[in-house]
Amino acid sequence: MSRSRNLLVGAALAALAAGPAAAERLGLGRPALPEEIDAWDVAVLPDGTGLRPGSGDVATGEEVFAEKCASCHGDFAEGIDNWPVLAGGIGSLTDRRPVKTIGSYWPHLSTVWDYIHRSMPFGAAQTLTVDETYAITAFLLYSNGLVEDDFVLSDANFRDIVLPNAGGFYPDDRPETEYPLFRAEPCMTDCVETVEITRRAVDLNVTPTDPDGRPAGTLPPLTLAAVAPAAEAAGAAAPEAPAAETAGAAVPEAAPGAEAAAGAGPDPALVAAGESAFRKCAACHKVGEGAQNAVGPVLNGIFGRPAGGVEGFRYSKALTDMAAGGLVWDEAALHGFLENPRRFMRGTAMSFAGIRDEGERAALIAYLASLGD
Amino acid sequence: MTDEAKGRGAGGARTSRRGFLRTAAAAGGAIAAGAVAARAEGPDPLITEVQDWASGFGDPVDATPYGLPIRFEDHVVRRNVEWLTESPISSINFTPIHALEGTITPQGCAFERHHSGAIELSKPDYRLMVNGLVERPLVFTYEDLTRFPRHVMTAFCECAANGGMEWGGAQLEGCQFTQGMIHNMEYTGVWLRDILNEAGVRPEGKWVYAEGADASSNGRSMPLEKAMDDVMVAFFANGEALRKEHGYPVRLVVPGWEGNMWVKWLRRIAVYDQAVESREETSKYTDLMADGRARKWTWVMDAKSVITSPSPQAPIRHGKGPLVITGLAWSGHGKIARVDVSLDGGRNWQTARLSGDVKPKALTRFHLDIDWDGSEMLLQSRAIDETGYVQPTKDQLRAIRGLNNVYHNNGIQTWWVRADGEVENVEVA
């Protein structure tokens, strides 16, 4: 019995070993061309594999960083709002609020170069040259106090740089440090003597809420009886039956007003569509009461106003030049800019691909026009 | 109520039903709604009177060529916590697990995580490159992928940061926000190993790196063994094409491992002799420990469970008596073996039913039917997987990992159910 089993196991092992080698190719796909691999395989590995020839110095890096990165990361890589902090924090990893930066946390310089080159700037990825990437990386080393201000980073000295936290990582050890502890047969009865509530989320009050103050998405009541108290409150101002009638009557009553408004002002549906389209702008542009300049300027009252007029916002040279030339954000200008920002305004700092769909642009412009000062 | 009334159109039935309501509510007073229904004093007009929907027409076919849920369910949507991130372009939202049942997550409300927005990439524009330490660097079109042998697999996808906001203590009200960075779909696609074999992995190749086509080109490394095991290059989810926000037309499915590795809009697979140590596997998705050092390559999602109802967004409104406690359990190590539920904050436990199929590395539904006496409860669930791993408490995890950990919080969740049926997110000790 055991002998035949061994035989079986042996046969199975042989079959497994033969498996991959014997796996027949289907002949699908085509050879990847060297130019294609060069275009897509931009990864840089910890040992420097994949690094491209080039160089950049701290001073150049500072200039490029100020132009292309500082609007989110700050002039000194200190991070604006919640955008990532890139410098400082060394020695903070055991603090209650550790600051994880390139200098304090990142283990490999290759990661910095790789990420900047392939994924930054946010909204305009893969627009930095190899030398610009070296320069920005050099500047980030400098802003972390790891090199002097005359430092030049290149593919020749790249591998010599060891980041401070290079030794700070170790592979997952949960199988040794956690799993043995959590594999005991669990207790079922009288497991603890007393149970006390130690924390309540309501004390923090940071959950998104519905208009009624409940946590957002709370399921509505399932029975009419449960709805009734709310209906009582809502209907308190009007007698029962007429309230139901006015609910229906309210529509035709409101309609003529809406039509009249359509002649004079924007179509509410279009403005609503524009508000929804604006979500892709809201990452950088704030609107409404109390809005402040962020990555981009506040857009209240933008429609029909001369370009470049928001106080306290540092515009690109491209924008100030066009503003000096008399650019006004009227409908045509907004259409042109929003369709393709970089074509309309060469050198704009706005990292946005544009909106091809004319209807979506029209909605967005209607929404912008609806914003007061 | 007004909106609802509008939507139903005018009709005497509604008016009289509302009249009935008033009477019932007045007569019932503080008695729970269920009790009122059981002791209805008069016949229910919903039954005795002919309703609009029982007399006129409903929608014709083709009214909605591809349908959305009925408007009465429009609260069942993904939700964002705006203060979490600076930009919705690089952000996350949450699956409304408190409102779902069974195990499959509809694509339309399954959580999204993008690093540079959800891109539009068509099938004709799609290319997948396989290069690095392979015999034959190859390029595949979408059509090429459809010609590999096809397989079907259900798997949960959980963000490593699911529950991260709760690491320091109970913070958000509702399992959508505390455990909702998860979804579970039935995928159809081809094995990554078949694609790798087509290119021929060279003996020095030890790591497989997958990268997306979006501007973030989110890339993650995994050991060759995992890539050759159960990783799928998927193009269907829940029977239909992947939705844009889930990586249309092609994404990676990495069963049991953290969601960040499930690269969407997959454009390149590379074989290397080392891990790339990309931004997402060094500065992010590493686990900072109390001593200031960090665990890396913490890929597996350990066993976890949560009661989805009752929960803060799903309070008990029907009063005492029969109560269904329902929840989800999952493990990146395999199948769920058992789920226990406690009504008293972990003092005593009883074993729940596992409902439906139990699949490895997939969401498992559990139910426990109780007769609620109307008194306060501290509800907890704990999952036990087929390796014998028992879901730990949050304090057990904190004792090992310290307070600066963010990822991989699989600790036990406590819901405080009050006598009025309202539910709060709390921690107990």
Strand order of the largest sheet of chain A: 2-3
User: SSE order of chain A, as H and E?
Assistant: HEHEHHHHEEHEHHHHHHH
Radius of gyration over C-alpha positions of chain B, nearest whole angstrom: 25 Å
- Summed over residues and divided by their number, the pLDDT of chain B gives a mean of 92
Shape of chain A: globular
Structural class computed from helices and strand pairing of chain B: alpha+beta
Which secondary-structure class do the elements of chain A indicate?
Answer: mainly alpha
Low-pLDDT residue spans of chain B: 1-36
Mean pLDDT of chain A: 83
The CATH homologous superfamily of the domain at 43-160 in chain A is termed Cytochrome c-like domain
In DSSP terms (H or I, runs of 4 or more residues), the helix count of chain A works out at 14
User: What is the fold-level CATH name, i.e. the topology of the domain at 43-160 in chain A?
Assistant: Cytochrome Bc1 Complex, Chain D, domain 2
How many beta-strand segments of chain A? 5
What portion of the residues of chain A fall into strands of 2 or more residues? under 5%
Number of strands of chain B: 24
Q: What overall geometry of chain B do the principal axes of the alpha carbons give?
A: globular
* Uncertain spans of chain A: 1-22, 230-263
Q: Mind summarizing the main beta sheet of chain B?
A: 5 strands, mixed
Radius of gyration computed on alpha carbons of chain A: 31 Å
Task: Indicate the CATH class of the largest domain in chain B.
Answer: Alpha Beta
SSE topology sketch:
The complex is a heterodimer of chains A (about 375) and B (about 425).
Chain A: H1 2-22, E1 30-31, H2 34-40, E2 55-57, H3 58-68, H4 70-73, H5 109-119, H6 130-143, E3 152-154, E4 169-171, H7 174-177, E5 197-200, H8 224-235, H9 240-264, H10 268-277, H11 317-324, H12 331-339, H13 341-344, H14 358-370
Helix pairs in contact in A: 3-6, 5-6, 10-14, 12-14
Chain B: H1 2-8, H2 12-28, H3 33-38, H4 45-48, E1 79-80, E2 91-94, E3 113-114, E4 127-132, E5 138-141, H5 142-145, E6 151-158, H6 175-178, E7 182-191, H7 192-199, E8 207-212, E9 219-223, H8 224-227, E10 232-237, E11 240-241, E12 251-253, E13 266-272, E14 287-288, E15 294-296, E16 304-309, E17 321-330, E18 336-342, E19 350-351, E20 353-355, E21 364-372, E22 377-385, H9 394-401, E23 414-417, E24 423-428
Parallel strand pairs in B: 4-13
Antiparallel strand pairs in B: 1-2, 2-3, 4-5, 6-7, 7-10, 8-9, 8-13, 10-11, 10-12, 14-15, 16-17, 17-21, 18-19, 18-22, 20-21, 22-23, 23-24
